Amino acid sequence: MTNSAVDADTFPKLLVRNAQVFRGRPAMRHKDRGIWQTWSWDEVLKNAQACAVGLSTLGLKHGDTIAIIGSNRPRLYWSIMAAQMLGAIPVPVYADSVADELAYVLAHAEVRFAAVEDQEQVDKILSVRERLPNLEEILYDETKGLRDYDHSHLHPIDAIMRAGEAALEKVSSTREWLDSTISEGKGHDPSVILYTSGTTGVSKGVVLSAERCIRAASDTVTFDHLTDRDETLAYLPLAWVGDHYLNYAQGLVAGFCWACPESGETAMEDLREIGPTFFFAPPRTFEQILTRVTIRMEDASRFKRWVFRTFIGVARRYGETILNGGRAPLHGRLLYKLGGFLVYEPLKNVLGLSRVRVAYTAGEAIGPDLFSFYRSLGLNLKQLYGQTEAFLYLTAQPDGQIHADTVGPPMPNVHLRITDTGEVHFKSPGMFIGYLKDDAKTREVLTEDGYIRTGDAGFIDPKTGHLKIIDRAKDVGQLRDGTLFAPKYIENKLKFYPNIREAVAFGDQRDFVCVMLNIDLVAVGSWAERNNVVYGSYQDLAAHPLVYDMLAAHVAEVNRSLAEEKVMAGAQIRRFLILHKELAPADGELTRTQKVRRGFIAERYRPLVSALYDGASTADISTEVTFEDGHKGVISARLTIRDADVVQTPAMDIAA
Questions:
Q1: Which sequence spans correspond to the domains of the chain?
Q2: Which residues touch 358 (CB under 8 Å, ≥6 apart)?
Q3: Dihedrals φ, ψ of 26, to 5°?
Q4: What does each C-alpha distance from 398 to 282, 377, 391, 404 come to in angstroms?
Q5: If we measure between CA atoms, which residue out of 519, 525, 530 comes closest to residue 299?
Q6: Contact, 326 vs 375, CB < 8 A?
Q7: Please, are residues 20 and 13 in contact by the beta-carbon 8 Å criterion?
Q8: CB 597 within 8 A of CB 591
Q9: What spatial distance separates the first Cα and last Cα of the chain, rounded to whole Å?
Q10: Range among 161-165, 481-485, 629-633 rated most confident
């Protein structure tokens, strides 16, 4: 990173700098029809400038909002850059949002333009067009299926760029005007509006300024020594703060290349082909990767399974110690080195993680066992903690100071404090301007002395100086006997098992803890195939007695783990059931970032919660579901409820 990165106060100015400093260095890649295409920094600048002139000709101007809807594609990133060149404000929207969710964001942000990926997004917008009075023009990237549409207000992004490029080449004043517009851009103006995940209710539009975003990204680029020689895979949702920070902001500050996968379905395969040096994945992705590895090993020969399990055991004993630069016995180091040759390096190579120098996870808490598994393989996986309102980073683990149960110390220039009630407050370089059209909510999260209330409960570990996050402050409660109830902590232990995709724990102000579980269809389906278990649907497999037996064993293991922790021993799981459907964002049960909407689930499945606590052995439920095309239907089922094996402890005897 050069000093000019700090001096530049808008992203278009950083783009101009990168084109001057890095020129032919790769800036962006995209896999299209199986072939990787690459654009250098000067080519990206040229494309963004052409797009900006084309958008200006259509009427986009300073202060306007433009929705960006789709997966990670270069032309959508160029649309973001182009909008910011004009002083307009991009509003990324989750590509898998249903029409109603899309309509809410576009109407709330009063968007005049929308740049979208393909026909699917165009159709969703047109289906709610009457609810979007401010929308004037729609631009699209993929032309397939759109030829016969009315194009009076529908434009291919390529055509807009060609028109802009022609204007820049033929009219000298156009380039002078655009250069002047970029240089006159103000860092304190709104640069992007990112909507929160809506875990606790309706999504809020977080307004961020460029100068604050750049300041925050500059700190983290320095922290992790990122340079123009690094590369990352841009597969995170465009609407999530993680993508706008980790790829867009850091990429522009450091000058590194970000690669867009062919599709979300091929992202993990494309990861292997790109071999990034900087990698981020939420815990769910790391869980899915481990699930795939586990399934493949179950299908391997007996000898290969023995080699894998033997050296994974070696890695668990010595791997983290060696990675952290600690002392391990000579025989441990020798075994670990042999394991690297036979297992760890081949495994990382297959997963696309061989070149990773820095890896992070965040978004929700990661299970300590899952975290330790990857680090034991020699992957420099670290944790960070952040929020959209902070433009992500608040804490991060420095190299060599890694603890599975912490999220690191405060980042440079970040100030944290823990209130008497245990809530985390912060001030940071990337602090948001406010919530869009919601001054009351903005005042609610800001303290009188300028700190932001996170809503998360945590504390600073006196031994390490690192922050520990317990759970959302409102979710942490107590059982009736006073035992601490931290639902996310219990859920993370359950989700370490590849067969369990999701878990929702209940227990606050109750006599004991109960959980609802989702099976992982891939993992359990593979198990069913190996064990000749016949099923016709997710519902059939989830209700199978042998599946219940398998998950009962997992619950029992979690209880044994909880029993070893004095504070959590009384919060062991007493009863559980397996849901008849997967929890889904389209049904309001998860956010678009895959976080559990606990209150909504408790209300929606109230009959099941009641059955868990009244001693019933079965419960009937009918649930409305939303299909991919937006249509709705109803799934009915009779669910089995099982008692779990509980480890008796002295503390429980006293409570009894």
A1: 13-188+226-276, 283-424+454-472, 477-655
A2: 224, 226, 277, 278, 279, 380, 382
A3: -65, 135
A4: 19, 18, 19, 13
A5: 530
A6: no
A7: no
A8: yes
A9: 61
A10: 161-165
Residue 650: exposed, middle, or buried by beta-carbon count in 10 A (0-12, 13-18, 19+)? exposed
* Separation of CA 331 from chain center: 39
Task: Classify residue 19 by burial, with Cβ atoms within 10 Å: 0-12, 13-18, 19+.
Answer: buried
State how far the Cα of 372 lies from the Cα of 140, in Å rounded to an integer.
43
Contact 471, 456 (CB under 8 A): yes
Q: How far apart are CA 497 and CA 508, in angstroms?
A: 24
Q: Which residues pair with 384 in a beta bridge?
A: 396
Tens of pLDDT, residue by residue over 353-369, are 999 999 999 877 777 77
d(CA 260, CA 30): 5
Structure-token pair, residue 526: 């593979």
Name the pLDDT band for 199 (thresholds 50, 70, 90).
low
* SS3 of 182-241: HHCCCCCCEEEEEECCCCCCCCCEEEEEHHHHHHHHHHHHHHCCCCCCCEEECCCCCCCH
Q: Note the pLDDT tens digit of each residue in 453-480.
A: 999 888 898 889 999 887 888 888 889 9
291 vs 268, more confident: 268
Q: What angle do CA 155, 157, 159 make, to 5 degrees?
A: 75
Rounded to whole angstroms, the Cα distance separating 203 from 585 reads 13
CB 30 within 8 A of CB 259: yes
Neighbouring-strand partners of residue 503: 517
Report whether pLDDT(613) > 90: yes
| 49 C-beta neighbours (distance < 10 Å), count | 27
- The residues, ordered by sequence, that sit 6+ positions from 130 with a Cβ below 8 Å of its Cβ are none
Cβ atoms within 10 Å of 102's Cβ, excluding its own:
24
For residues 117 and 527, what is the distance between their CA atoms, to the nearest angstrom?
Answer: 37
Taking each continuous run of H as one helix and of E as one strand, the counts in the chain are: 26, 27
- Report the C-alpha gap between 259 and 82 in whole angstroms: 19
Give dist(CA 631, CA 641) in Å, integer. 30
Place of tokens 């690297």: 340
Mean pLDDT, range 375-403, rounded to an integer: 93
Q: Both tokens of residue 502?
A: 């999701």
The answer to whether residues 89 and 79 touch, using CB atoms and an 8 Å cutoff, is no
Alpha helices in 112-171 (DSSP H): 119-127, 157-170
Superfamily of domain 477-655: ANL, C-terminal domain (3.30.300.30)
Q: How far apart are CA 301 and CA 196, in angstroms?
A: 46
Same fold, 13-188+226-276 and 477-655: no
Q: What are the tens digits of pLDDT across the range 122-150?
A: 999 999 999 999 999 999 999 999 999 99
- How far apart CA 437 and CA 108 sit, in angstroms, is 8
- Give, in words, the CATH class of 13-188+226-276: alpha beta
Other C-beta atoms lying within 10 Å of the C-beta of residue 366: 25
Asked whether 410 and 416 are in contact (CB, 8 A), the reply is yes
- Number of residues that make up the chain: 656
Q: How far apart are CA 227 and CA 255, in angstroms?
A: 6
CA distance readout (Å), 214 to 13, 193, 374, 430, 452: 11, 15, 31, 8, 19
Would you give the DSSP letter of residue 244?
I
Structure tokens at 509: 């102000």
